[in-house]
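Minutes, project check-in
Item: structure for the 360-residue chain
Input as provided by the requester:
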Amino acid sequence: MNKQKVFGICVGLLLSSVAAADTQEVTIYLDSNSQTNIAPVLKIARDKWDQSPESDASYGFSQSRFGIAYRHQAFENWQLHMMQRVDYLIDTNAQTALGYYQEQNDQALTSFDNYDTKLTLTGARSKGLGLAYQHQFDALAITVQANYWQLNYLRDSQLSGMLSGTDDLQLRGSLQFSEYYSHNNFLKRPNTDNAWRTHGDGLSLDVHFDWQVSEQFTLSGKFIDLYNEFNIDQIGFTEADINTKGSFVDNVGFSSFRPLLKGLETTQNHTFDLPSQVYLQGQYQYRGYDYLASVRRQGDQHFAQLGMKLDNWRIMLDPINLAPELAYQGQTWSVTTALDHINPNKALTLRLNLSWQLAW
């Protein structure tokens, strides 16, 4: 029995057993977190490179999850989630980012004798079901959520090597390229006669906790994708060497021709995981005020915030990235937003969290 059938049976048993109760709760939520040190988030998303990348360019991520959660009073510790997620991740270096910007703007790649080229790009879109269980241990509440995902889109690409340019906009170098893809791909290979599969599946585990350590101090945390694994069988795969030198002299002195691109196009089974997201926040009450400190880890990137809570409002600041965060918690809804620039088109940090609850 496959993972999807097992998960469906569990959800069906939960739903079929709540007909006798009469109190229900639905929560609609959006969690979106985007940050980069390459160029403004929205300009990268639109592939609009009209300004030079940052000198320390190295990473970018945009991870969003939209969902609807259902809870019934008969099983108040359980919650069912229907979700969609979009994940985009970039791992690169400053020379690669600058070279791409120059190429996109018809500028000569002459800033370096040789550009150390490194790029890993992952894009995935999935829809899924989640089942969450909450348990209260005196002052500690823990929620564990298991998720099943149907992977609808994947592009997982890697590029490395050396590249140089000339004043007449010619490119020279040697690159190694590999790419797994369900749909779009660099060489625009068509999926003729369904040559490869376009859907896969995956599992993930999330853990949340709230701990009242003392009367004055509270610690809360979220571990998103603490465990996760995605699989897609017989996905499209391309592996190639790209060399701009058309001819060379081999080791016995004969002149030979080397093609611009040499490699293979086939299908392969592919397994991958997404970086875990960790968020920890401490809240300390002193003389009527709540002081906050938080740390966040997104893959290999670490962030910190300091702030205060005033009634229903929360104000935080990332002192390194200078990204203020403003949050409001109402009785049935909440909103959190963070920007490091008043103009979203120039922001390197974009974060939006929305939640609305309906009970009847």
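Outcome recorded: The first strand starts at residue 24 and ends at 36.
No further action items on this chain.
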